[in-house]
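A quick word before the example. In earlier lectures we treated sequence and structure as two separate objects. From today on, think of them as two lines of the same record. Here is Nitric oxide reductase NorD protein written that way.
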Amino acid sequence: MGFTVEVEEWVGSIWHRFITRRASPDFPEARVELSEQQRALALLFRAVGGASGVAVEAASGRDLVLRRSLLQKVAGTCQQLPLAWCDAGSLRLPPQLAVYPDLELNRELYRWLALLAAQAGEMRHWARDNQRWTRELLQRFPALLPRYQRLVEAHLALRPDSKTLNPAEAALEQALCQALRDPGSVTQFPRSERAPWPLPLWLYPAEQLGAPQAGDLDEESDSNLLTPPDQQAVVRKRARRIEDSQSKGGLMVFRLENLFSWSEHVELDRAGDDSEDLDAARVAEDLDELALSRQRSRKGGGLKLHLDLPPAEVDDIPLGEGIKLPEWDYRKQALQEHFVNLQMQLPRGSEAQPLPLRLAPLARRLRRQFEHLRNDRQWLRQQPQGAELDMQAWLDFHVERQHGHCAERGLFMEQRPGRRDLACLLLADLSMSTDAHLNDEHRVIDVITDSLLLFGESLAAIGDPFALYGFSSLRRQQVRMQELKTFKQRYDDNTRGRIQALKPGYYTRMGAAIRQASKLLGECKQKRRLLLLVTDGKPNDLDLYEGRYGVEDTREAVLEARRAGLLPFCITIDQKAGDYLPYMFGANGYTLIRQPEQLPLRLPQLYRQLTQN
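And the structure line, produced from the sequence above:
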């Protein structure tokens, strides 16, 4: 019996692969993956005028009412196809393209879609708008015309023959082909009960993916539907709100032909249970649409130990009342006043500790280097007396005397001790991502801790005023900022103990932390004020702060700091930082440490480079 079942499964798998391959309209041998082109497409999109905060991501399949062939009906394919679309927050492209038999044409199609999206605006009529955007793009960049024509002619050869369609579908197909050949030439399109075969050169209306998360959630439950980190999907799912009627009585009708409907619904109570249900995550991965309800489920026989926030007796020590801060909403182009609550804290369990012995040799070397900066002397020019002749001043005096304009000026140079009129605040990211391992021995948090210790040793040697803080967040109600050293405190064993007591946790709401750090640094009287941010990733949190919202808020916080006369600078170990940090901090406002283990040594060196001029 078991052998028979195995043979049936083997035959079934062979049939499935055969019929699916025969029914597919794609060319697998010429497939191009979005993941290979993603960064280049993002750069191209922004280079031709696309919004800098828009992310290039994979699009999920969309339901289409198409006329399918007999093979496609048997195989059950072509019911959902990924289509390109864009909105204010993201550009969604198919995860792979194999619509042409030529590999280079599929790559060219990705580039064309990125260019078209940069030209696109609000969509009111799918066909007329795409024609207009195409025409404007070709007028703006005439060199694109041969490439566009090559894509069009190759695609038209693959489209359905209008002679095999009914009159309404044939008329629509002919109109679309004409619109592709001559953009803008067709203004009226015939109606048809079935959708035309997808046009891969055009953008489609945006899907409302974020509406269920942004609708009627209260402040305590405004979180997104999450998947365990090791099973995160490449594409975002569609979602809709439903009324959960489990508590209502009624007659249940059971029909055997509905057994396959299990794949369309899975209960996942995110508001009441944060445990990782791996089975539910795998099922959700296969779903086309997620239905969300307000139903709370109760589970018995279990004890939940890991809560959103730790108990008060083991949490960090709060300092005073919470601080209300604004947050930038790019959709409204306005600051939301008193939107974020930030709580200053001290690491619990910290005790005065000396510098770890393993860091002592490197600390001594850095201290010697920074002590030289404190003793550096500066040459003052055009002095009435001094140790050396100021050749530039003498030449100016000689030229002026030749022309009869002899002004009094000093002709000597004098060397005097330099005065460093600057202050620095270092802000360290302590989110849960810093708990990741760099190798078998070190985590990211260990590297950040060592960096803070050596940074403090170096600046204590030079005598520059400095402060050290860490930050993390759990939604806008819980932005946590750990006070390690204020400007008024000495760098001593108490500070070293607080640094060594740091623990990673939660998320990265950068904007609020930068605003509070800017306020603290802005109170310093020094002429130059440097705000350093050390992080391992991009802004994120459980609510809408994920994605463009967080990037835009962080960018606005950085601009606010610059307007206040501060110099914000970001040091990161994220290898993908080039995708978002230039937009947030500017091309010269950040640096990437490609070997994170070098951060403790590189951080003091970067400080020297930033403050020597």
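Notice the following. The first strand starts at residue 32 and ends at 33. We will return to this example when we discuss secondary structure assignment.
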